[in-house]
Each structure stands twice: as structure tokens, then as C-alpha cells.
Amino acid sequence: MSCFPCCTSQERINKKSLKKSIKEYHEEKILASFANISVKTDSGKRNLITNELAKLGKGNITSKIFPYRELCVATQNFNPANMIGEGGFGRVYKGHLKSTNQVVAVKQLDRNGFQGNREFLVEVLILSLLHHPNLVNLVGYCAEGEHRILVYEYMINGSLEDHLLEITPDRKPLDWQTRMKIAEGAAKGLECLHEQANPPVIYRDFKASNILLDENFNPKLSDFGLAKLGPTGDKTHVSTRVMGTYGYCAPEYASTGQLTSKSDVYSFGVVFLEMITGRRVIDNARPSEEQNLVLWAQPLLRDRMKFTQMADPLLEDNYPIKSLYQALAVAAMCLQEEADTRPLISDVVTAIEFLARKKVEVDEPRHTKETSSTQDGDSSEHNESDEESDGEEDDENEDEEKDKNVEINKKE
Description:
Residues 78-355 form the Protein kinase domain. By secondary structure, the protein is an alpha+beta fold. 44% of the residues lie in helices and 11% in strands. It contains 14 helices and twelve strands. A six-stranded mixed beta sheet has the order 1-5-6-4-3-2, sandwiched between helices. A two-stranded antiparallel ribbon has the order 7-10. It has a two-stranded antiparallel ribbon with strand order 8-9. Helix 6 runs antiparallel to helix 11 and helix 8 packs antiparallel against helix 10.
């Protein structure tokens, strides 16, 4: 036993700190190498995937390498009955790993599809190096022969899109507080990419179908194949070909290919508006003037008297009126035409944290059909003033300091 336990303890702490610093240094170098990844896709170079991962990982890639045979067994030979999703990248199957008794989601990339070898490699590296409660957990992958397969933790409640835009009769619509909780977690996932990753990572594919939900409706971002390293040093943006989903792309990125973290903030604003309104960003089934969500919302966002017209009818008027105003103000700031005028994602997190954690008092104003019918002329202005006054008193009693953080709403 040491005579100097304090010194010994401090020495251990210093060693741990040094090991952590070394690990973070290696992770930064691996992350920075994304920009230079170049993987051939011809049959003679297929083994480069495994070699590249082994070379770049150097002990940091903790995801398991699965044999193709094991994943066939887990999904019953990729039985269509086990399919839980499909997109441009390929198909996702529910599987069961006998070795660990774990239920997983198995994404089999389409060999002729959108997501290629480079995207596969980027996704494996990002999810192996970045760990956060709001990023989906990568269990492992398979790069055997022609097969490109990703194995994720299974998210029992599917995607936000399933519960917001494609609601089946057996599902209840999301209530207001659950929507705010999901928005908060999704924003924190982006915050991890933008401000915790070094160099920063731009997601580039933020949309409702890529936000997965666990049994408690906690959100996790998925599908990182389109992710790009953000600008570093004196650079203000990165130039790249325009990728992503129509309607979610920021205007400056769609027109010039210039990508920044503010491009993700715009995409977040689109999804947040979908969550508030229950409308798809592009819906050709609606009248022509309502088919593009952002264009439809722009004039309404300039008139507070019309804010209640934007709330999802499936909420059945059951939401705090002031929270609706604040949420729409956050969405409006994220959807600014000029990238520089949009907030940082950390500021968005601060604002939505307030909305998600705010307790709805019994006497706090809610929108109801009765109050809606009075919102005409002078009585409308009087009603709105009363609601804001009551809301401000509640906020002062509840958390005066946090209310100051939501400066974004006062600009609206």
C-alpha cells in the first residue's frame, strides 16, 4: 500500500487524462480523413472497404464486423415479412442476433442504389467515432464481397414520419409536449455534429424519416451517408454537389452547392414546421398554393393573428397558445433566407429546451374552439393581449431567467 495515496491517485488521474487526450487526438485525425476518402467501386477493389476501415480505425472502430451468413440467419434470409423500411439506399429489416439475443435493424444497401461505397464508409466511421444519446447506435457492419450492410440498434417506434405524416388508424397522433420533446432531442443530435465533433460534421439529410424513435419517443438521428465535414480555419463553407431531399435543402445550398452548418439549421426549421402543422414539406395532394409548406407558411408567419391556423388539426386545439407562438418564432428564424441570419443550433436547443420542459399550468391559456371564434376585430386583439399577459406572469413565477434565453421570439 502506498504511503502517498493522494499522489498515487493524482498520478492515475493524469494517466487517464493523457489516454483520453490521445484517444481524442486519434479520433480527430480519423474524422478529418473523411474529406480525402476515395473508394473505387469496381469488383476488383471491393476489399478496399475493409482495408480502409482497418487502416483508419486503428482500434477506434468498435463496431462489430458481421459475416454475411449471420445476418442472413438474423433476418431469415432477408425475408420480406421482416422488412420495416425502404428508401433510395435499399431496405431495412428487423433481425434477431442469436449470439447476443439482440433485436436489431439491418440495412441492406442496394448495389445499384443511391448510397455507394464512400457513403457506406463515412457512415461506419461517423457512428463509430461519435456517440450521443440522440444519434443512433451502430452495432456493426458487413462488407463481405459485394454486400454492404449496416446493423443498428432497433428503434421500436419507427420514424417521426410514421407518427406525424403517415399516421395509421392504430396510432394516436403525437401530443404537443411529445412533439417538443422530439424536436429538442433532434436539435441536440445536430448540436453534437456541429459543435462537439472536431472537425464539425454537417448532416445534410435532416428530415422526418431520418429521425427514429425509441419506446419512450426519444429521438435519434440516423442515415449519415451524406454527411460532410464542415468548413475549418478561415473557410466559410464547403462546396459540394447538391444532395439530400427536395424541400429540406437550404436555398443557398440548393442554388450554389455552398454548404455550412446553417444549412442543417434550415432543414431543422422545415422539420419543426412539419411537427407544428402536421403537413408535409411537399404535398401535391393539396391545393397548388399549399403544396410547398414553407411558401404556404411564410405569409402566415408574418401575422400573429393567423398563427393558430397553422397548428396541426390532429392536436384538436389542445396546446398552450403561447408555446405555439414561441415554436413558430423558432421555426421562422431557422427558415430565414439568408444563412447568416439563422441562429446557431445551440441557440435553437436552448429555445426548444424551454418549450419541452415547460409545465403547462391549469390556468395557462390554451387554444380552444371557443377562443378561436372570438379572434375577430377588436375582440381578437384583446384576447391575444390577455393570453400573453397571463403567459408572462406564469413564466416569471416559473423560470424568469430561462424566459430571457428565448430572445428569438421577441424578434418575431
